[in-house]
Design brief:
alpha+beta; Peptide Deformylase; five-stranded antiparallel beta sheet; four-stranded mixed beta sheet; 3 helices; about 30% strand; binds nickel (II) ion
């Protein structure tokens, strides 16, 4: 497993729509392993393949010690109820801001062995899934903050540590 470089805002791949994976083979599993390593090293609560410069629909999340891998994720059965919560992005470190997200979702896709999976999720993990699926569609969390004055610069290390528990950084 290798820690890969995380693509930063301004690089075009972050604004492109990622392509569907046609077959979950060893090269995809290798990508997944590297994404997990990169996410944990950062540390972050999620990562999408375009963030390691691969234009494919693959995401990983790590919230409350639960590691998830979804190939070709699709959000189905989203609850109508929304909640505001803070997010930051590994492709835009040093910034945080409040984003409205659906509280409960069901994600469908493929596992790392290519089998269909369905995950019911809520709260921070559901938020991480929505943040990552956005990345696959070229959307950044800042695009979902209409009032840009709500974007906040993380100034100190202490502030960063405090935020770790209270935001999705992915
Ligand atoms: Ni992100």
């Amino acid at each position: 497993m290798t820690v890969r470089r995380i693509v930063q805002l301004g690089e075009p791949i972050l604004r492109q729509k990622a392509k569907k994976v046609h077959r979950v083979d060893d090269s995809i599993r290798h990508l997944i392993d590297d994404m997990i390593e990169t996410m944990i090293d950062a540390p972050g609560s999620g990562l999408a393949a375009p963030q390691v410069n691969v234009p494919l629909r693959v995401i990983v999340t790590h919230v409350d010690d639960e590691l998830r891998v979804v190939v070709n994720p699709e959000i189905v059965d989203a609850s109508e109820e929304m909640e505001e919560g803070y997010e930051g992005c590994l492709s835009m470190p040093g910034w945080t801001g409040p984003v409205d997200r659906t509280i409960q979702i069901t994600v469908r896709g493929l596992s790392n062995s290519g089998k269909p999976i369905k995950i019911k999720s809520e709260g921070w993990e559901a938020r991480a899934f929505q943040h990552e699926v956005d990345h696959l569609n070229g959307i950044m969390f800042i695009d979902r903050i209409d009032d840009k004055s709500k974007l906040h610069r993380v100034e100190t290390e202490a502030e960063e540590e405090e935020l770790e528990e209270q935001q999705v950084f992915a």
